[in-house]
Amino acid sequence: MRRKLIAGNWKMNELKTEGLELAQAVFDKCAGQKLPFDVLICPPMSLLGMVADLPHEVVGVGSQDVACTTKSAGAFTGDVSATMVKDLGATHTLVGHSERRTMHHETDEVVCQKALNAMNAGLTAVVCIGETEIERENGEALTVVARQIKGSVPKTATADNCVIAYEPVWAIGTGKTPTTEDVAEVHTAIRQELTSLLGEKIASQMRILYGGSVKPSNAKELLSVENVDGALIGGASLKIEDFWGIAATQL
Ligand code: PEP
Questions:
Q1: Does 23 map to a domain?
Q2: 233 has pLDDT over 90
Q3: pTM of the model
């Protein structure tokens, strides 16, 4: 049985005071609760250590990226290694978010190396994949995600050290979402691709999140689709009412 994961990606948002307040609000919601789902927040790197240091139970804290080099330290100005992220108290990291694939030209190979670095450092990698609008219009969505899975998911991935996030690029921050039929089709195809790559057992246990304009009003429907094991939430993770409004649809 796959437990759902409700994950927030804060992107490059929140200064110290507001960021710590938001993290505290999430921790407060989860404290002392036996929630039927897991919760993860991914603050910007500037707040990661401070957020992870706040007393909290159960909730995962993740970075939004890790360095690509296989070295855990060295002359890599501006980079933060997976080992350093783990050392700050993080449990997870996103890798291959479409904003990084697009703005930083990250290839599947780079994303795969980052995921591997994360796993080797003891973090769970949330590997993000998803087609662009043009690719969807051209009927290439399934081919693109299959290629991204093959190229970005390390062969050593397990359900404990890896989560997949399907985020159609055209749905991120746009208010547009695919139909539930389209989400079901892609998530089923992802599960099949994971089966070829990692074998039936691991593929059946691995969580596949949906991301892209999830909000309280559409969360219940999206999260009820077969093979949707949680949500990766951008904009709506910045307001506790919205983030928790989404999570509460699973209570
Ligand atoms: C994201 O960037 O991971 C995301 C899903 O953003 P939003 O929820 O704002 O579409």
A1: no
A2: yes
A3: 0.98
